[in-house]
Structure formats: structure tokens, C-alpha cells
Task: structure prediction
Amino acid sequence: MNSSILALFVIALLIIGLLAYGVYLAWGSSQHQTSRKMKKRINALAVERQDGAGKTSILKNNLMNDATWLSHLLKSLPSGRSLEFRLHQSGLSWSVAKFGVITLLALVLGVVAALVAPLPLPAKLGLPLLCALVPHLLVNFKRKRRLKQFDKQLPEALDLIARSLQTGLAFMAALTMVAEEFPAPLGEDFRMLNAEINYGASLNDAFNNMVARSPSEDLRYFVIAMLVQRETGGNLAELTGNIAQLIRDRLALRDKIQTLTAEGRLSATILTLMPFLLVGLLGVMNREYVRVLWTDQTGIKISYCMFGMIAIGNMVMRKMVAIKI
Result:
């Protein structure tokens, strides 16, 4: 009894600490820390100017520099840099450190819920992992929606560039117009593109960085065609207009495929959720009737077979409706 109370007390302290640290990362360092860091940099620059020694960076910190020790730990991971790009592509203002804290907090909450709730052993083991996957699923959902919005904005931006070039504007002026006229996410990426070029980056490097930030196939087509045109020459306005029309045709074909495969995707979703909904409904109406699925050995084997068949069915139906263009 004493060990159980001690374990619950330790878990409660851990949850409180993670909540406090998450709140600190998310909201607690807005204006006070910004002014303090600004004063620190200004003082460091003043000392450097007087002494003439040392180098101080006044560049904006990226998403990996929000928390010192946690950022260093996440940097050492193989997927740390790719996670940073995913967070940027999702449009969320989370840093990598904040994402790690939120994931760890969700894992701890899942462990507490699994210990408290009267669930079978497989569900107790899977609930913490499912809770830890919620931030990843949220980032992937936001990232997919943002990239889709980017692809929808791209043809209009290319048309604006083509019309600007036809009226006699320079290419850089056309890029600036796109950055000023279009909202996020496309306008934001073009503003970062203009900033990199203005700060001295070459056009090739700036566009390659833009493709890395927003991995859109349509954007990659435009960048490759534009870079080749700069080497070989040609009518850039006509080339940009043709690429815009090509992207529109691809988007129309993609929407048509989504419409034709909607029935298959909906069927896969219904068939996947139906067993869980039926088990939950039967558990509410007659718990003893479905207890055999996780208490009896034959019921456990049937449950494992059901999970395996659901996974295989999902993979088969995803392959059926996944048409690449």
C-alpha cells in the first residue's frame, strides 16, 4: 500500500513538473525573456565594439534553440532536423523542445490513464503509446493541410510572376510582389526567399532552401525549370505561365482521383472503426459478454487475429486507392 502511494506521488510530481515546464516553454517567456535577451545581445555587441574581440551572433534563433539542454539532446537525434522541418511545414509555432515536452506529457498522461482506468492489459499497454502519438498526428495533419493550401496558391502566384515579367518588371520585383500580395503559407515562404536573397544568398541556394522548407512537387518543377532557364536562356514569362497551367491540370486530375476513390477510403474507415464501436457498445450494454475477448485465451487469440486482419485490410485498401500522378 505504501509503495503504491509513493508511486502515485512520484507520478503526480512528474506531471506537475512537466505541466509547469510546458507552460513555461509555451507562454511564460514571451515579453520578459525577449527584452532580456535583446538587452544581453546589445550589451555583448557594445563590449565587442569597445574591445574589438570576440564574435556575437545577432541572427534569429531557429526552432532548435528554444531550450538549451533539451535542444542539444534533440539535435543529437537522427530525426531532429527533419522534425524541425516538419514543424515549420505544419505552420505551428512549436519549437522542437516544446514538441518533445508535449509528447512526453501526453505519454505520462496516457500512463496515468492506463493505471487508473479498468482496461485489459493490451489496452493498458497501447494507451500510453496512442497518447504519445497524438502530437505527431496533429503535426502531420496540419502539415498535410498547409502543403495542400500551398499547392493551391502556387498557380496563382506563378501567373502573377508571368504577368509581371510580361509588363517589364524584373524577376526579383515579381518575387517581391508575390511575397507581399499572397497570404501564408505561400506568401510567408516567398518572404523568406526574398530575405535570403537580400542577405546575400545566391538565387540557386535560396530556391533550394525554399524547396526544402516546402517539399511540393509542383514547386520543385518550377524551381528546376527556372534554374535551367537561367543557364540556357529563353522566355521566362512564357515558361512560368506554362508551368502554372500544368500545375492547374495536375490539381484538377488530383481532385478527380480523390472523388473517384472517396468510396473506397470511406469504406476502409467504416470497416476499421466498426469492430471497436461494436465492442464498446456491447461493453456498455453487457460487459460480461465481451470480457472473454481479453480474459479467455481463445478470446485473446481472436482479438489478436482481428487486429492483424484489420491491419492487413487497411494496407490493401490503401494500396487500392493510392493513385500517384
About this structure: Residues 28-34, 44-61, 63-67 have pLDDT under 50 and may be disordered.
